[in-house]
Amino acid sequence: MRIGLALAELHRAENDLAQELLRVSERHRVDHETYHVARDVAAWSQRHVREVAEIGRRYGQDLDPEPEHESSLGRGLRDRASTLLGREGPAELLMLRDLRGVFTRASGVSVDWEMLAQAAQGVKHAELLALASRCHADTLRQVRWANARIKESSTQILVS
Amino acid sequence: MGRIDRIAEPWGTRTPYGRGEPWPARVDTMLDDGLVPDDVDRWVQSATILHSNGDGLDIAVKDDRIVGVRGRVQDRVNHGRLGPKDLYGWQANHSPDRLTRPLVRKDGELVEASWDEAMGRVVGRAQELLAEQGPSALGFYTSGQLFLEEYYTLGVVAHGGIGTNHVDGNTRLCTATAAAALKESFGCDGQPGSYTDVDHAEVIALFGHNMAETQSVLWARILDRLAGPNPPAVVCVDPRETPVARAATVHLAPRPGTNVALMNGLLHEIVVAHDWVDHDYVGRHTVGYEELAERLKDFPVERAAEICDVPADDLREAARLIGTTDHLLSTVLQGFYQSHQATAAAVQVNNVHLLRGMLGRPGCGVLQMNGQPTAENTRECGADGDLAGFRNWSNDAHVADLARVWNLDPMQIPHYSPPTHAMQMFRYAEDGSLRLLWVQATNPAVSLPELGRIRSILAQERLFLVVQDVFLTETAQLADVVLPAATWGEKTGTFTNVDRTVHLSEKAVDPPGEARADLDIFVDFAHRMGLQDKDGAPLVRWHDPESAFEAWKECSRGRPCDYTGLTYDRLRGGSGIQWPCTEEHPDGTERLYADGKFFAAPDYCESYGRDLVTGAPLEPTEYAAMNPEGRGVLKFAEYLVPHETPSEEFPLQLVTGRTLYHFHTRTKTGRVPQLQAAAPDVWVEVSAHDAAALGLEEGDLTEVSTPRGAVRAKVRVGGIRPGVVFLPFHYGYWDTDGGHAPDGTARAANELTLTDWDPCSKQPIFKTAAAAVRKVAPGGGVPAPAPTTTGSAPVTAGVPATVGGRAAEVDEDLTTEPPGRRR
């Protein structure tokens, strides 16, 4: 039985995704939709971290239910830097690269949830399956958001 | 015939009526001092232009000058009534400071120029940028105040001719969420209800909608029901004690930014706690019920009560009224649209009507409102960025169909991504990739959020700014080229109100000087640019309003907003007519969605919908799987905490809004003596509780600040929710020493608002900023310059009432027969 390992991996991956979303948010403070929505959907990953830690105890995992915190000092600096630099073209290119990073990372998390859902069905653990279905739906929305932002922004950024 | 001061009595004399009876007539007439109707040379048919109600009126002309207005008794919308802005607002046409010649910037100054020179500069720069960068360098930011023919032409020029995706209107600030919410729930824009639902409703619920001030004639209709036998119950959701709140059976005053929580609490009562659901209707005509019902289980009314800080019993009572009536009319406006989670909240109101099967029957309707007179046309003609005729940008067949109508290659029409919304256009101008911005009949230098940022974007050397307007607005003062436009009464065209009523507005007088109709400017631009269809013929093949209208009719054929049964002649003489109007329905269509039929089929719908939190559009296949039969869509929305919440430094919440006596940035109404005197300067509303805590009294000068800046305003101690302060957004700088920007102390509310928008509708958020208020100087007993007749009514005794005096006296004729009894 390797479900505990899969949960530990998801715990790490969701923490990483939340951190990445928060970093992308800070780096693109001048792109207001990216800034705000990235923070909103980072909260979903932070909730997943708590839920994975809780159910992980049943599979022998001692996972920290508290999501990793963003550094508030770093955040302030990055906020100011991104406001100053935001009027230059390269910041926009960087945003595309960052959104691509969110897309691939969230896609990885999506696959992790899929694997866990398969395992949950194998061991007939209804609660684990419900958790996986619920969280996977959120992850797919994160993937689609990153994809949509890329689709929306890339024409303007790449042709001008 | 009586005389009445309509500044002091904005809704006029009551004409009570009972449920199901026709609304009595009352003809309001205002003429220049000393004139009587017999002095008028001619009456020219039109409709009201300073709000979205679409009241039919006639313009009085004497010696080729506009001398007054009279409500059209035969019009279905107003039965002869007019609101204060309409009764006095026409005087702005005569202002001595109208723009009468084009202006171009030379050596840093705007100087007069010929039309040839001004248009030559615009066309020259546009062609330069097209050659250098392509269409992505050009953007058009239009209005909710032009006419249908003008928007349609603009859409053809921008989407079809230039091929840019950057087209939007200031309707983004007023009505984008109405359109977005209708698309989410019904697959397509298009107002379900009708104003006549007021005549039949048993319960009228107004969600964030201060109708008394935004659509004053529709509110008069409700007041007349309230004064008659078997009046409706009124539910009001608003943090301010508006006239609507004072008339309400139940008034819910939630914390700003918590509308979704409030709606989920109400829906929990309707769905989970009491099962007031029409299961037959839901089963046959909707998708999404199971998930909605499941997710609502987590939202009992107590949880909503805690988040919103509203008594749970009041929520229960509101839910009981909404949930048990057989005739429910709901209306929604800026309290939802300009707040956090705008679309998600507005969609929950649609959900109420889908769940209860209350659509398409007399007294059962939703009115997702808008603020401006012609905003509906901005939406349907595609001047808000959507494709003309409610076509779906992500449906290739719709793009091909539009290309057929315009005789273009489909590739020429940008449809690779959602249209660029206004806030994103300003972002592109900020990052330097949008280099020509053409603004028409709107004033972003006062109306957009975070004005310091907006001014810095508009003032950039690298941005070529064209402004087409009636006056030298704050925005026009920053322009490279200013084009003087004709306005209402000086040009012919049609426009469509909130409940789909189309009116013809005829030219009454010539525009001043060299000012030209917006339509003529667009057509001229198209010709100068040499815009062609795929066979080399001119792309814009029409030359005047009526030929433009005929072209639009073909574009609308077979779409939900079908105008093919209308002609200018049919619109002359009688009442406005509601679309869809076709050969089969020559008198128009009073209500959409009778019998649970929607415009939502995957191959017909305007939109596949978006994620209500992230705004990501659904893919065609996702939508087709979710809603193969084109039913109404029930969508749950999770509540999110607002992005800016009060802190120690900024402990209050700021909401901005409007007053009855002004329109937008006062470009017209600030030049009208009666309206200007009624609300002459900015004020800030504070509750008695906060006034006591801050040591403030009525009339004290304060500084209101947020992380973006500070403004100064005198205090009106009023009936607003404790912890919330209100600033009217109308007051900019054109009539101050600053000109286009503050000279010393600022007064524009949007200096303070934050740059954030609803990811789904892209409507900016004006109603959830954290703010602080401090006293600057005592008022010395002089009250704030705020009206006493409206949502800004004082709680302090002794504040003199707002009156207009003799100059504001209007004739009221209560003896005319209502339209239903004529013919």
From TrEMBL, chain A:
Taxonomic source organism: Isoptericola peretonis
- What highest taxon heads this organism's lineage? Bacteria
> What name goes with this protein?
DUF892 family protein
TrEMBL record, chain B:
Q: Which parts of this chain are annotated as the region Disordered?
A: 1-20, 779-823
For this UniProt record, the keywords arranged alphabetically read as follows: 4Fe-4S, Iron, Iron-sulfur, Metal-binding, Molybdenum, Nitrate assimilation, Oxidoreductase
Mind telling me which SUPFAM superfamilies this protein's record contains?
Answer: ADC-like, Formate dehydrogenase/DMSO reductase, domains 1-3
Which Pfam families does the record cross-reference, listed alphabetically?
Molybdopterin (PF00384), Molydop_binding (PF01568)
Start-end of Low complexity biased regions: 787-799
Q: Which residues form the 4Fe-4S Mo/W bis-MGD-type domain?
A: 41-97
Q: Which family does it belong to?
A: Belongs to the prokaryotic molybdopterin-containing oxidoreductase family. NasA/NapA/NarB subfamily.
The name this protein goes by in its record: Nitrate reductase
